[in-house]
Design brief:
The chain is α/β, with parallel strands linked by helices. Helix content is 44%, strand content 11%. The protein is built from 16 helices and nine strands. The chain has a seven-stranded parallel beta sheet. Strands 2-3 form a two-stranded antiparallel sheet. β7, α14 and β8 form a beta-alpha-beta unit. α4 packs parallel to α7 and α8 packs across α9.
Length: 365
C-alpha cells in the first residue's frame, strides 16, 4: 500500500515517473451513478454542496465504486460566488444561472471578497473526507477567472461568450476589476480546501478555448497565474484544465501549472510537445465509453502509451463524464489503466518536448 505522499496520483502530479499511471475522471461523481441520484433525490444542487455530510458521501461514491486514484471534491465552480451572496442557482440540465448579471464596475464592486468564514461547510467537508480517504488524495478545485466571469456576465451558459468578450475588448477597466475579484475569490477558496487537507488543486478554465492565444495571454492568463501562484505557495501540485485549448496549452502551462489538463480534441503527444516539460492529464474522448469495450480500451492504451513521453501522466477523460455513461464501462476502464504497464522503451523518453508533428503513440522499437 502506498502512502498519500507516494500515491501514484501525487507522484505523477509532481512530474515523477511512478510505477503506474494513475487515473481519475472529471465529474466522476454525479448523474452517471445511481447511488448519486438516490442521495440527491429532492435535494437541490447548491443545497447538496453546502451539506458536508452529503458532500463527503457523494465525493466518496466513485472512489468506492471504481477505486480511482484520486477523489475530486464535490462542489461547483459557482459555489464560492453563492457563498459570498451572489444571487444564483444551478438549474438541472442548464447549469449556473445568475439573477443579476455583472455589467458595470459598480456590479463588480458589489461582490464581496471571500473569507474562510463564508465557507465553514467546505472546511468541514474536506476534513471529513481526508479522514475517510486515507492514502487516496483529494483534489480541491476552483473555477478560473475567465470561465466564472462568463457565467457572471452572460447570466448563464453561453455558446459564444459574446457579452463576456465584449467587456474584455470594450471595457478593460471593468474587465480587469472583475478578473481580479474572481481571482481573489478562487485563490482564497483553494486555500480553504488545501488548509483543510486537500492534496492537489485543479483550476477549471473550461471555456478558455473561446479565446485566441493573443487575447488569452493579454487579458486572462495573468489572472489565472495569480490564482495558481497563490496555490503554489500552499505547496500542492496544481492542474490547469480547459476545453478546446489545443492552441493555448503552452500559455496555460506558463500560467503556473504543474500539470496541464488536455481536452480530447488534441492528440496527447502533440499536447506534450507544447507544455514545456510539464506533466499532463487526460485525455480519452468521453464518448468512447459508449463504444464497444475493446474499442474503448484500445484507445485508452494509445493515450497511456502517448503519456509516457511526459515527465508525469495522469489518465483522465478529455472532459467530464457524460451523465448517460454506464458506470460498468468506467469500472473496466479504471481496471485497465491501473493494470497497464509499458511493454517497451517509450518512443520519446528524453526531457526535450517532442515536436507537435511527432509520429503516432506506438513505440518505435
Ligand atoms: O468532477 C466531479 O465529480 C466534481 C464535481 C463538479 C461539479 N461541477 C458537479 C456538478 C465539478 C468539478 C464541477 C465544475 C464545473 N461546474 C465546471 C468545470 C468543469 C467542466 O465541466 O468543464 C463547470 C463549467 C461548471 C458549471 C456547471 N455546473 C455546469 C455546466 C453544470 C451542468 C448543468 C447540467 O445539468 O447539465 C453544472 C451542474 C453540476 N455541477 C452538476 C454536477 C454533478 C449536475 C447537477 C445535478 O446533479 O443536478
Amino acid at each position: 500500500m502506498s502512502t498519500l505522499a507516494d500515491s501514484p496520483f501525487l507522484q505523477a502530479a509532481r512530474g515523477e515517473q511512478g510505477e503506474r499511471t494513475p487515473v481519475w475522471f472529471m465529474r466522476q461523481a454525479g448523474r452517471s451513478l445511481p447511488e448519486y441520484l438516490a442521495v440527491r433525490e429532492g435535494v437541490g444542487m447548491l443545497e447538496s454542496c453546502m451539506d458536508p455530510e452529503l458532500v463527503v458521501e457523494i465525493t466518496l461514491q466513485p472512489v468506492r465504486r471504481y477505486g480511482v486514484d484520486a477523489a475530486i471534491f464535490f462542489s461547483d465552480i459557482v459555489l464560492p460566488l453563492k457563498a459570498v451572496g451572489v444571487d444564483l442557482d444551478i438549474k438541472p440540465g442548464v447549469g449556473p444561472v445568475i439573477a443579476d448579471p455583472v455589467r458595470t464596475l459598480a456590479d463588480v464592486e458589489a461582490i464581496p471578497d471571500l473569507t474562510a468564514d463564508h465557507v465553514p461547510f467546505i472546511t468541514e467537508a474536506v476534513r471529513g473526507l481526508v479522514g475517510e480517504l486515507g492514502s487516496t488524495p483529494l483534489i480541491g478545485f476552483a473555477g478560473a477567472p475567465f470561465t466564472v466571469a462568463s457565467y457572471l456576465v452572460e447570466g448563464g451558459p453561453s455558446k459564444d461568450h459574446a457579452r463576456t468578450k465584449a467587456m474584455m475588448f470594450g471595457a478593460p477597466d471593468v474587465w480587469d476589476a472583475l478578473m481580479r475579484k474572481i481571482a481573489g475569490i478562487a485563490a482564497e477558496y483553494l486555500r480553504v480546501q488545501v488548509e483543510a487537507g486537500a492534496s492537489a488543486v485543479q483550476l477549471f478554465d473550461s471555456w478558455a478555448g473561446a479565446l485566441t492565444p493573443r487575447d488569452y495571454a493579454a487579458s486572462v492568463q495573468p489572472h489565472s497565474a495569480r490564482v495558481l501562484a497563490a496555490a503554489g505557495e500552499l505547496g500542492v501540485p496544481r492542474i490547469h484544465f480547459g476545453v478546446g485549448t489545443g492552441n493555448l496549452l503552452g500559455l496555460m502551462g506558463e500560467a503556473g501549472a504543474d500539470v496541464v489538463g488536455v481536452d480530447w480534441r488534441t492528440p496527447l503527444d502533440a499536447a506534450i510537445g507544447q507544455v514545456g516539460g510539464r506533466a499532463v492529464q487526460g485525455n480519452l474522448d468521453p464518448t468512447l465509453v459508449f463504444a464497444p469495450t475493446e474499442v474503448m480500451l484500445e484507445r485508452a492504451g494509445e493515450v497511456l502509451e502517448a503519456g509516457r513521453a511526459a515527465p508525469g501522466h495522469i489518465f483522465n477523460l478529455g472532459h467530464g463524464v457524460i451523465p448517460a455513461t454506464d458506470p460498468d464501462q468506467l469500472k473496466r476502464l479504471t481496471e485497465f489503466v491501473q493494470s497497464w504497464r509499458p511493454t517497451s522503451e517509450p518512443s520519446s523518453s528524453s526531457p526535450e518536448p517532442s515536436p507537435p508533428s511527432s509520429p503516432g503513440p506506438s513505440a518505435s522499437a
